[in-house]
Amino acid sequence: MARVSRPLRVLLVDDDALVRAGLSMMLDGIHGISVVGEAADGDEVPAAADAHAPDVVLMDLRMPRVDGITATRRLRRRPHPPEVIVLTTFDTDENILYALRAGAGGFLLKDTPPAQIVDAIRRVAAGDPILSPRITRRLMDRAVSQAGAYERARAALASLSPRENDVVVAVARGRTNAEIAAELFMSVTTVKAHVSSILRKLDLDNRTQIALLTHDAGLA
Question: What is the DSSP letter of 160?
């Protein structure tokens, strides 16, 4: 999770130089955000991440050599990975679902207003997934309809303690750590520890994936 004591470091990944230039001009004027590097293809992302240590990566989906989903998956498997927000013109169910399962913490369209992109960067850096309610509902309906999704999700969640199950339901409902702490009468530190344990037990990368699995199980 990114620290708030310094500007959030953002890496731009897009094969369109004009898109990168536009994003850079927009974000570099925002207090608390610094564009530290750019990459023109998914295969450039590992070296760029090593060179610039970003907190958040804005990731295009369709690129000539390595696509954004593959690049996201590889990046999120690294130790202490940055958060990833997919920024694309392609909002098919498959693209959204694959991106989230690859570990992206957010999914935005390129026509998203600048203020919302800035807000998404800050929220995803803080550990809050960004996905519009309309897209979330589409994904939930699709996932639940897939054969065996309910059974697989229920089996996975069976490995959690009752308290951890309370936490996953709250996460799936979009509650923040502070809100979960208040609802379940525990400290924020304890909530964070439960979330970390849940991610480890379920072999997931972020809270968005917890929400997807919980909805698959019909618990939220």
Answer: S
pLDDT single digits (tens) 207-217: 889 988 888 88
d(CA 137, CA 98): 16
Cβ neighbors of 143 (< 8 A, separation 6 or more) are 97, 149, 212, 215, 216
Average pLDDT over residues 33-50: 96
Edge-to-edge strand list for the sheet holding 33-39? 33-39, 8-13, 56-59, 83-88, 106-109
Reported as a single tens digit per residue, the pLDDT across 62-116 is 999 999 999 999 999 999 999 999 998 877 777 887 888 899 999 988 888 899 8
Strand, coil or helix: 92: coil
The radius of gyration of the chain's CA atoms, rounded to the nearest angstrom, is 17
Measured between alpha carbons, how far is residue 5 from residues 8, 24, 33, 82, 197 in Å?
9, 21, 11, 17, 26
